[in-house]
Amino acid sequence: MIAAVFAARASTRAAAATAEAQRATARISSEPGQREQDRAAFAAITDRLKEEVSEERRQRRLLTSYVLDMLRWARLVGPDTAAGPPPNPPQDLDLTPWHVQ
Asked: DSSP state, 85?
């Protein structure tokens, strides 16, 4: 019964999305110059997303290298050995998501 309710909701959403896509297609084909505007907007959006993804990948690489450095340091430090200072994070690593305010 619950599965039927979810299936009905999904089909309703799919029908609404299809109708919206058809309306958008009709709008694009009916308005002069709209297609070029949409392409320019799409290009701007994809360029921005590419920049954000490349920055996120860069930050993930830096974070991964820092975590690996911490793991290497933790392997050297045993329960009965004096711990040296932990490694510092890379300069370019953005740690603001982990700061508690």
From this structure: P
Count other Cβ atoms within 10 Å, centred on residue 40: 10
Check: CB of residue 92 under 8 Å from CB of residue 55: no
- Helix or strand (DSSP H, E) at 39: helix 34-76
Residue spans of the domains in the chain: they are 17-76
Q: Is the dihedral of CA 41, 42, 47, 49 positive or negative?
A: positive
Q: What is the model's pLDDT at position 101?
A: 67
pTM score over 0.70: no
**Distance (Å, rounded) from C-alpha 66 to C-alpha 70?**
6
Opening angle at CA 75, ends 69 and 79, nearest 5 = 130
* Model pLDDT for residues 7-33, shown as the tens digit of each residue: 455 567 667 767 776 776 666 555 667
